[in-house]
Amino acid sequence: MLPKHTARLLLLAALAFFSTTLFAQDANEARKFQSFLARAEKGDDKAQLAVALRYERGMGVAKDFDQAMAWYLRAASQGNAGAQGNLGVRCQKTSKYKDMAESYKWLSLAAAQGHKGSIRQLAALEKKISDADRAEGKKRAGAFKPKKEAAGQ
Q1: Which of 28, 30, 24 lies closest to 61 in space, CA to CA?
Q2: Where are the transmembrane segments (predicted)?
C-alpha cells in the first residue's frame, strides 16, 4: 500500500492530467464549432446540421435548444434529410415545438430520400398520429420545395 502523501500526489497528478485533457478537448470542440458555424452561415446545409447537433448537445458551445431548432430548420428547408429527420423527431417530443403534422411532414420528406432513421420514426408515428394530423402533414410535405440558401444568408 502506498503512503498517504504518495497516493495524494498521484491523485492530484491524475486530476491535473484529466482536467488538462478535458480543457484541450473543449478547446478543440469550440474550434470545430466555429468552423462549422462559418460554413453554416454561408448556407452549407451539412454544416448547418452539424451546428444544430452541437447546439443541442453542448459540444463546443453552450447548449441552446432554440438555436438547435433554428439550425435544423435552415438545413431541413434546403432538403437535408438528416436535419429533416431530426426536426421531425423533435416536433414530436418537445413541448415547445410539438406539432404532430409538422413531425409527419419532416419525417416523410426525409424518409422519401431514404433516410433510414426517418423511415423507422415515420412508421412509429403512423401508429399514433391522428387522421387529421396525418392529412395535414401530407399536405405540408406535398407543398414543400427545398430552397438552397445564397452564400451569406
Answers
A1: 30
A2: none
Question: Which residue pairs from 64-69 have beta carbons closer than 8 angstroms and sit at least 24 positions apart in sequence?
Answer: 65/94, 69/97
Is the Cβ–Cβ distance between 111 and 77 less than 8 Å? no
Give the cell for residue 124. Answer: 412509429
What is the DSSP secondary-structure string of 30-78?
HHHHHHHHHHHHTT-HHHHHHHHHHHHHTSSS---HHHHHHHHHHHHHT
What pTM did the predictor assign? 0.81
What average pLDDT does the segment 30-35 reach? 94
Amino acid residing at 44: D
129 and 21 Cβ atoms separated by less than 8 Å: no
Rounded-to-10 torsion of CA 45, 50, 53, 57: -160
User: What is the distance between the alpha carbons of residues 140 and 106, in angstroms, rounded to a whole number?
Assistant: 9
